[in-house]
Structure formats: C-alpha cells, structure tokens
Amino acid sequence: MKYLPDLQQIKILILIAKLGSFRKAAKELNLSPPSLTSAINNLEEKLGVRLLNRSTRSLSLTAVGEEFLRNIIPVFDDFKRVIDGLNYYREKPEGIVKINLPRIVLDLFFQKYFLAFKKEYPDITLEIFTTDRKINLIESGFDAGIRYIQDIPKDMIAIPFGPKLNLVPIASPEFVKINGTPDSVKDLINFRCINRCFPTGEIYHWEFLDAQGNITEINVKGDLVMDSDGAMIQAAELGLGIAFVYERLVSEQLKEGKLIHLLPDDNYPADNFCLYYPSRKHIPIPLKALITWIMGMNQGMS
Description:
Elements: H1 7-19, H2 22-29, H3 33-47, E1 52-54, E2 59-61, H4 63-85, E3 95-101, H5 103-120, E4 124-130, H6 137-140, E5 144-148, E6 156-171, H7 173-179, E7 192-196, E8 206-209, E9 215-218, E10 221-226, H8 229-237, E11 243-246, H9 251-256, E12 260-261, E13 270-278, H10 285-298
Parallel strand pairs: 3-4, 3-5, 7-10
Antiparallel strand pairs: 1-2, 5-13, 6-11, 6-12, 6-13, 8-9
Helix pairs in contact: 1-2, 1-3, 1-4, 2-3
C-alpha cells in the first residue's frame, strides 16, 4: 500500500454501506454524490482493492469490502473516542450533538433551552431535526431524542426535559359571543372544536382530570383537523372553533384578551418531555455536556 487512507474517506465508506446509497450518504454529509464517488475511488486506489460493487441500479460491498469494514469500524470508533477524550482538557468542549424531537418541543423550548445551550457551548455543533413520527435513534444516527416518557423505548436512559406542561381549551372572544361557553367538560361535544391529529392519522381525544384525579377523555367534534399547535391557535383566533393547545403557547394571547381560557376551574393532565439516549459505556463529551446542562436546568424547576 503506497499511501495510508484518509479518515474522511473511511467515514464516507461506512456511511454509504450503512445507507446503501451514494445519494443518501451525500445528503447526510451535505456533499455532492460525485464528490463521494471520487472519495471512494481514491480510497480504493490507495488500498489497492475494490470495496464496492456499483452499477446504475445496485450497490453492495465486495467480500474484501465487508472484511475491511468489519475490521476498520472498531478502530474508527476507538479513534473518535480518543479524539473526543481531548474535550476533557478543553475549557469548553467541542463536537457534534445530533438530536431528534417533535416540532412542538422546538416551539416550546427553542429559545430557553436550545439557544441558551448553544450560547453556553459555542464550540458544540447542535444539529436539531424535527419529526412527529417515532424513530429509532441508533438506526437513524442520532445521539439523543426528546419525547414523552411513555414513548421512549425501555432500553434507553431518560431525564426530564423542561417543566410539566398541560393543554387548555381556548377560543376567541368572537366565538364565545356567538356560541357561548361550555358548562362542563362533557358539554364540549356540543361545540365546534379544532381536532388534533397524530402522525398515524389517529384523532386525539381531549383529556381532563375529574374530581378523583382520573383522566376523562372527550371525543370532540369539528370540521378542522390539524397537527400543529401554531396553526390551531391561529384558527382559534379567527373564531373557527375551540382549540386544545399547550397553555404556555397562548399565555400572551390570554393576557391580552385575544383568546379566552374556557373551563378555567377544571384540571388538566400535566407531564414533561424527556431527553433520552442509548445506554453507553462511553458517552460522547458533547452529549454529556448537554445532559449535564439539562440536569442543571432541572434543578430550577418545581
């Protein structure tokens, strides 16, 4: 072997093999597919062996390529851990933290949590990807995720993220003037409501707490179905129905009288999101910094 291979080229090979596509790997790395082709060609030239079988319709590792990856991946992971270990000696750690979360978490916590963390750790690259669908963290290449505790796989470690939150029924003064207000939680079925839809297509049944603290579900009716709190709030402001949204998102509108909190004497289930991550012997320093920072934020919560 005339020249040692480049680590970036090995990283590209590992990603291509994982995703099974030059195009997908290029998108993941924010590079052009031709640049990845050039990198693999150069890697094969340096090693003096063919690693990939390529055609316009298929892509697979050669037998040599499979053996090479089987041996090089543990070495590559050890290399990353050694480099990451240098963070212990830096005043501020650096590296990448890749997080997956629902859109609503960004709406609720972007400034107070994500921007604040980035300001505290300017050398950490924070990559935030939103999806309301449940994903496999490890298979999707994420360091951590944020979900409600009931949606987190049992083999993951989870810590609270943010304070407990609840949803409240709200409507515009115009809607209330025309339609009146519900006398009780069960009376909501007689009003035009804005329904919430999950990624699966399932309609959310509004949840309330009865006098004994048990959850009561109400299957409300309406001709508007959405999966975005922001859109629901706008629709409610226009008098298109009663919406059931996170109270924190409408605090200003409630203060200014643009929206009215209906059934204010009733109680609503409250829960918090959790940051979760795989159980690892060696947690990457950037992720450890995020975990420690969030645990510090948790100490100030009631």
